[in-house]
Amino acid sequence: MSADSQREVGERIAARRRARRFTQAGLAAASHVSYATIRAAERGARRPSDEVLEAIAAALGVDATQLRTGYIGTERRVHRALPALSAVIAGYDIPQGSPIRDPAALPSAVEEMTAWRLAAQYGRIAAEIPALLHDTIRYAHTARTADQQAAARMLVASARAADAIAFKYRSHDLSARLIDLMRWAADRAGDPLTQAATSYVRTEVFFAARAHAVGLAALEQALDVAPAPSSCSAAAARGTLHMRAAVIAGRGGDVGSADDHLTLARQLGDQVAHEGIYLGTAFGPDSVRIHEVSVAVSLGPDHVDRALRVATEWMPPLALPAERRSGFYIELARAQEWAGLQADAFESLKVARAVAPQHTREHPWAREVAGSLRRFHRADAESLSNFSHWIGAV
What we know:
Layout: H1 6-19, H2 24-31, H3 35-43, H4 50-60, H5 73-88, H6 106-118, H7 122-142, H8 148-168, H9 172-189, H10 192-209, H11 212-225, H12 232-251, H13 255-272, E1 276-278, E2 281-283, H14 285-299, H15 304-313, H16 322-338, H17 342-355, H18 357-362, H19 364-376, H20 381-391
Antiparallel strand pairs: 1-2
Helix pairs in contact: 1-3, 2-3, 2-4, 5-7, 6-7, 6-8, 7-8, 8-9, 8-10, 9-10, 10-11, 10-12, 11-12, 12-13, 12-14, 13-14, 14-15, 14-16, 15-16, 16-17, 16-19, 17-19, 19-20
């Protein structure tokens, strides 16, 4: 169910079209949709079907959820992709020949996939990742010795993109198998930074199992062998591990460890100084601020003031990846709902949806907060009801 009007969808299509410097005729040609349909959709006179919306989104280089927040074709794409991913990785450690595409084309394809993951464009990932993962697995086996480390890094990045949709869509067994593949590839790379990045992602297994104490122990073990923070990349690798350790310690109720790891993450963020993407993970002072909210919310309602204090002083800049910004507003909404700030909580959820619709729709805490607001609070009832239907909280 979409909470968007036809006019809102049309305005988004028109804005994206102009940003890409397409005329209406140019968009019609690129999307193979009739000129009359494009014109009618932009005026709000016609509601594009899912097929038409997907074609327009593909031509504009965006996920369809960026045009219509109630779009559910992404779920269909993801669920179609999951069995294919399972088949692709069934024998990842067994050489199976050369990749289909030219290995020279792999770096740009992997870079694009990573950008889609950071932007929470799960539909686009689902459409392309089985084929890319197939090729990066084969390349890891066939690359020349001099290219082995680069090949393994590309395989880790591809598997991480696949894991993003597996984990978000609660296919936790597949997610765990993809993480095993990442660990295998990281060991082949022989690169401590890649191994640290893989340890960061591996924490999802412990989150899913609610095995917080052993997850914290695994991260601390990874920190013991991570490189010294003598460069920005090494400092970021350690900093991301400390951020993750702080959150899982918080979920386990270990206040002391959560605060200790958050302090160390903050020091490393200050050392790095500028926010950036390091081996596929955002790190810097802004990411640490977001994790301050994550830790406070993980610790529970008694620590809500810590989360609200961050939000009164700072908001995530637009340059941060969409998935991370969306996560901030979802966690802030949870803190606001605990604090009795229901209107503020709903506003935060709406911001999260505007930033990354599919990430918000699939986030269990967003669904939980929306459901609670709808059950117990009457303010803005119609809009809240529409949102709750969209997110599946009813």
